[in-house]
Structure formats: C-alpha cells, structure tokens
Amino acid sequence: MIDYSKKRVLIVDDSQAMCSSLRITLSNFGITRSEASYTAGEAIYRIRSREFDMIVCDYNLGDGTDGQQLLEFVRREGLISPSVVFLMVTAERSYEKVVLCAEMAPDDYLLKPFTAETMRLRLERVFDKKEAFSRIYTQLTQRHLDKAVEECDRLLAQKTRYSIDVMRTKGELLLELGREDEARALYEEILHLRVVPWARLGLARAMHNSGELDSAMGELREAIAEMPEYLAAYDTLAEVQGAAGMGEEAQETLQSALKIAPGNLVRQTALGEVAYRNQDLETAGKAFETVVDKGRYSFLRTYKDYVNLSRVQMDQKQFDKAVRTIGNARDSFGDSPEVELAASTMESLIQHAAENEAAAKVALARALKARDDAKLQLSDQVAVDLARSAFLNGEEEIGRQMVREMVSNYYDDARFQQSVRNMLEAVGRGEESKALIEDSVVAVVKLNNEGVMKARQGDMAGAIELLLEAANRMPQNIQLALNAAQALIVESDRHGWHDEHMREAKRLVDMHEPVHGHLAKFKKIKAYLKDVGLKFGVNL
Amino acid sequence: MPENGSDQALQMATLLSANLHDTKNLMGQLMLRLDALSGDDPGVRDARFLCQQVNDRMVQLLLLFEVRDGELKPQYEAHNPEDFLLELRENARAWAGERLRIEMRDDAAPDYWYFDRTLLEMAMMNALHNAFRHARQEIILSAGMHDGMLQLSVSDDGAGYPQGILHSAGDERLPVSQDGTGLGLFFAGKIANAHNNRGVRGRLKLDNASSGGGAVFSILLP
Ligand SMILES: Nc1ncnc2c1ncn2[C@@H]1O[C@H](COP(=O)(O)OP(=O)(O)OP(=O)(O)O)[C@@H](O)[C@H]1O
Ligand SMILES: [Mg+2]
C-alpha cells in the first residue's frame, strides 16, 4: 500500500469548484497535503518553489495555454524529476488523440466525469509504476544513462506488467546515448507487432542519428500520411529537413502542423526561426508576433521572443516598431544581464540601420559592458548579433575576435558557420569571411594536431596541458574535448592512476554525451575510460 | 453573403462544444461530490447509479454523432486488461451493494493490449448494466486470449439472451426492453468492429454459454 499521507499534490484547474471537488476526493484517499493553482503561470511558480509528488492538471486551462503545454514545459525544463506523477484530467475525449500525437504523454489521464473509485485505482497504479521505475529514475537524475539502460533491462527481464513502458523509456535512452543500432532493433521489434506511433517516431530518429536522412524523412512522411494529426512527427520531420539543408520544406512542414494546432507557441517559435533563416521575413514576422502576442500571459514567454520579433522588424526597415519591441522586452523582463545584453545588442543594430550612428555606438558599448561584467556565455544567436554590431559600429577587432572564438568553438558545425558567413556578407566583410573562418579552423586544427603530436611522442604532460587548456577555452569543441580526454586517460593507462586527471576526463565525456554520444570516436573514448577504470578497479 | 451559412454552422458548433464541455465538467463535479458522501446509505448508492446512467446516455449521444459522421476512430493505447477490468468491477461493486457478487478472471490475460479505453469502457459498462438487470446472484468479468485476440467478457447467471438477439449479434438496433433503448449492444458491435490491427477487425460475440445458461457478452480485439 502507498502511504498517501506524505504525498504532496498540486491541483491545476481554472475552475475553482473542480479544484475543490478534487481536493475533497484526494483527502478521502488520505492525501491531505494538496494545493491548488487556478492558472498555469501560478502553477509554474509553485512547481519552481517546492517539490511535489504529483501534479493533477486540467487539460483546458483557458488563457491561451493548456495542460499538455504545461506538461511538456515542466518536463523539458527539468522542473520536475521523472519520479513525479503527472495526471491529466480532461472533459474532452479529443485529448486521447493529443496524447497519441504528442512527444510526451502524462503518466495517465482521466476523462471527466469519473468516479472517485476510478481515480483511486489510477493513482494506485501510477504510483506503483513509479515505484517499479525508481531505480531507473535514480540513474537518470544522476545522468548515468547507460546504467539507466541496465536498469531497464533488469526490469524487462523480470517480465513486469510495465514492459511496454520500459521499452519506451529504454528506446529514448538508447537514442540519447547514441546507441542507434540497438534503438532501431528495439523499435523494429515493437513495430513488427503493430503500428505504434511513438515507436515509429523513435525509428525515424534512430535513422536520422545514423545519418540516413532520406529513410528518416520517408518514415516520417509515411507516419504523417497515415495519421495526419501526428504533430510530433511533423516536428521531427522539420528537424530532419533542416539538417538536410531543406529549409523551405522544413518551413512548410511546421506550417502544416500549426494549421492543426495553432496554439502551440514552441512550434510557432520554431517556424519563425526557420522562416528567418529562409529569409522569408513576412512569415517570420507573423510567427514571432503571434508568439509575443499570445504568449503575453503565458509561462512560456521569454525576452528572446521579443528580440526575434524586433530583428525581423529591423530587417523590414520598421525601425520605430523594432525599438518599441525591445522597449517592451525591457519593461516585461526587468534588467538581468542577459536581457540587457540581448536588448542593447539589438538596439545597437537597429540604431545603426536607422543611421543613428551615435546611439548605435552607445548601445554597443552597453552590450559589451554587460557581456564583460557578467562574463556571460553567449548563446549562438546573440553572439552572431553582437559580432555583427561590432563590425558595423567601428569595433572591427572585437568583431573579428568574436568570430574567431565562435568558429573555434563550433568548428565542425556547418550550419553555424553558414550563419556566421551570412553575417559577414551582410556587414560587407564577405571577402574577409573566408580568411577569418578558415584561419580559425586551421588554428584549432593546428593546436589540436600539436597536442596529438606531443602525445604520440610520449610527452603526455605537454599534450594534456595544451589540449585541456584549449578544450576549456572552447567548451563546445568536441574534437578538442575528446583528444584531451584521450590524453588524460592514456597517461593513467601508462603511468598509473591519476585521480584528478581521470575525473577531468570523465567530466569531458559526460559533458559531451548528450549531443555527441552517437559519434564513433566518442564511443571509443568512453569505452577506453571505462576500461582503464576497471583496470585500476575504480568505479568512476 | 455566401459565407453566412457556414459561419452560422461554425458558430453553432462552437456553442455546442462549449456547452458540452461545461456539462461534462459539472457532471464530473457531481460524481465526485456524490462519491464523497457515505456509501452505506442506499439512497446515495441509488443516486450514484442514476448519475452513472445519465452519464452513459450522454456518452452514447456523443457517440451517435461520431457514428453518424462515420468517425468512430479508436485511439489505440497499450492498457493492462487486468487493470481495466478491476476498474469496472470496483465501480460496479459500488452500485451493486449486497445484491450481487461480481468476480473477475484474468489469469490468461496478456500484460498489455492495444485498445481505446474510453470506447471499451462504455461498451463494457452497458454489458454490466444489462447483466445487473438479468443476473440472479453473480456476474463474472473476464479477460483472456482467443484466436490471437484479446477477449473481454461479462457473463451472468440469468436466463440468457433471447433468440432474436443471439442471431443479430448487435448488427442492428434492437428496441427490446421497456426501460432501455436497445442502443447498448448496437454500440458494442460498432466499437468492436472499429478496432483494427493490420487488417484484422474486432467483433462482438453473444451467446448463452455460461454454466447456468446465462448470457455471455464478449468483445474480441485484434
Ligand atoms: N445479460 C442479459 N441477459 C438477458 N438478456 C439480455 C442481457 N443483456 C441484454 N439482453 C437483452 O438484449 C436487449 C438489448 O440490450 P441492449 O443493451 O442493446 O439494450 P437495452 O439494455 O435494452 O437498452 P440500453 O442499453 O440502451 O439501456 C435487452 O433489452 C435485453 O432484452
Ligand atoms: Mg443495455
């Protein structure tokens, strides 16, 4: 039996009467520690400020958002741990379709009206499932993904009633770990018996990750043809199309999905970004406008929406509007260094475009100050914007330095390099772009080679010093990280265990696993790390 | 304006769905409020049963529209048959009180099966209501495998289905009882048939094969 007296529950429903009915029902089960929120925004606030064991959420929340968006937000942002029960309550049978077509599902859902008995049984089941999964969740919260997979296998071997849920979790973990061959086999096994939407999506992802973009797109198009409301399939298809350089198609895909579910602001933002990359300013502008408008009272809103909109308005030469949009961002989001940096950067660009040289320079100075004062790690888009402003406002050397840093950091990301190249074209530095980008790449490659050479010549200390320093300076650069990790491990392998260095190697590996776990070289280094650990009997 | 007709239709549809949404919410509250009262009082039990019946009628009404528009599309999700039956049984016990025993047999049931829980719940609920009317002492809910399909059954120890019904197997609407509409088995047939896996369709099976010759209602799901 589950001890309900210790469970903390949050009820989210825009109807106060329903909230109180639910509270009474829960208290009859022994759940006395329950709180209620009548809006999504308030619910998020509560979720951020304390821990709950369960969230009971109505699907229909009014004010432009719904329970599914709330669920996806709190799970994606990691606001609740995987062991927290999320139970959706809804009066709409169409929610069943939403569950099937979305990327994330709640632990269970109840269609109104339902009896207290039904709710009691569902709660019992769902808490029992969480209990069965608890060892998987422990590994997950510590980001030990491969151990989490081992726990999945253990649970599968026990042949519990949850095998299908375990398989779903395992598939997602395998994909995240870059073990796409195993993921593929798992999804194919499920699909062999019946067409299950999430397994189909998983299969397409596995194909995407192993570089088979055409097969992935084929699989997704077929899934959409069979189930035209399969929204998660549209999102994934747009992602694959983007990776395949099919920007126009990606835009169309997102537009089709938005026709089906116009209220989804995350997707609307994605559309704006794709359209902007495609230089379709009209579509981009409309998309970002919708996000800013509809998101005004939404927990999803961020200052970035305003910056995106303002950038489009500037490109459309609507300078007054663009400045006003940035002003609104400042008004709504206060003056954190991030907002100050992004807003001032945008202002400097707008003022320059409007030929207010002096104002542009002042804004740029403020942006640079914000960056240096708070030592901010710049996001891609802000970094490109800031470099652009530097070039335009007479700070060419700062601009060049930023380009070098960006390119060194992402020197194997072609899409990012393209946007840097576009930026340089736009500021009339097209002729410099080749030299800047290529030189930076060459410089990193040279540094890298030097390190590797030292290692080959047996100068492990020299190699480590060089590579580790470079890896820390360019934290997104995967090649440097892997070579540094390799040098660190080789040293222990040859000369005996060096605890600090081995932990450093582990940190580098863990840091890059989520994005680069699928690379063959990554897998090799990770295995090497484990082997050397075993050799010295240390469990890292 | 040529658009007028469809505008009006759209407005009507919006009003309808808003009204419906509210009705279900109110119904949801009513049900939970009734459940919060003590179940020892037979009057409360009756009220719950009535509430359940009003709800079933409302669900049927909505389903009628779906059937009329040819849109009865199951949303398949994996469910544990044992959990599914348990929920039915516990709810049924709450109205049955002392009058009837309600048992469950699920040893031969698989761990999970793909079906539309809401649709199946309404078909099985009707079968349970029918069994209430006809059973003498006992109703048995069971889940098992038959010809590679999941079989969900409700059997009772009453007099069994009349001949006319056995032959029709829910193919057409049967206005048979005085207090019913004869829609229950009709929908059960539609619901079973709408389930489909790789070309294999589900079906409704009615017979009087229970030990005492009582009615056995079964739905087979591919
Ligand atoms: N368990 C049973 N034992 C004997 N006869 C039954 C049983 N279940 C149904 N029947 C007969 O089949 C008829 C049709 O059942 P069905 O569920 O379709 O309609 P109903 O119960 O009369 O009306 P509704 O379900 O709309 O309330 C019933 O009227 C009854 O004569
Ligand atoms: Mg009936």
DSSP, total strands of chain B: 9
Q: In terms of per-residue confidence, which ranges of chain B show pLDDT below 50 for 5 or more consecutive residues? A: none
Average pLDDT number of chain A = 90
- Percent of residues of chain A in beta strands? under 5%
TL;DR of this structure?
The complex is a heterodimer of chains A (540) and B (222). Chain A has helices at residues 16-28, 40-49, 67-76, 95-101, 116-132, 134-141, 145-157, 163-177, 180-193, 197-209, 213-226, 231-243, 247-260, 265-277, 281-294, 303-315, 319-333, 337-353, 357-374, 380-392, 396-409, 414-426, 430-456, 460-473, 478-495, 499-516, 520-535; strands at residues 8-12, 33-37, 54-58, 85-90, 108-111.
Description:
The complex is a heterodimer of chains A (540) and B (222). Helices cover 71% and strands 5% of the residues of chain A. Chain A has 540 residues and is mainly alpha-helical. Among the domains of chain A are: 4-132, 3-Layer(aba) Sandwich (Rossmann fold); 446-535, Alpha Horseshoe (Serine Threonine Protein Phosphatase 5, Tetratricopeptide repeat). Chain A has a five-stranded parallel beta sheet, sandwiched between helices. In chain A, α11 runs antiparallel to α12, α18 (337-353) packs antiparallel against α19 (357-374) and α20 (380-392) packs antiparallel against α21 (396-409). Chain A starts with 7 loop residues before the first strand and ends in a 5-residue tail after the last helix. The model of chain A has no long low-confidence stretch (mean pLDDT 90). With 222 residues, chain B is α+β, with helices and mostly antiparallel strands. Chain B has two domains: 2-68; 77-221, Histidine kinase-like ATPase, C-terminal domain (Heat Shock Protein 90), CATH 3.30.565.10. In chain B, 50% of the residues lie in helices and 19% in strands. Chain B contains six helices and nine strands. Chain B has helices at 4-36, 42-68, 81-96, 117-134, 163-168, 183-194, and strands at 77-79, 101-105, 113-115, 138-146, 149-156, 196-197, 200-201, 203-207, 216-221. In chain B, a hairpin with an 8-residue loop joins β8 (203-207) and β9 (216-221). In chain B, α3 packs parallel to α4 and α4 (117-134) runs antiparallel to α6. Chain B is globular and about 60 Å long. Chains A and B meet through α1, α4, α5 and α8 of A and α1, α2 and α3 of B. Bound molecules: adenosine-5'-triphosphate and magnesium ion. Adenosine-5'-triphosphate (ATP) is lined by residues 126, 130-131, 134, 156, 158-162, 165, 174, 176-177, 180-186, 215 of chain B. Adenosine-5'-triphosphate binds at residues 126, 130-131, 134, 156, 158-162, 165, 174, 176-177, 180-186, 215 of chain B.
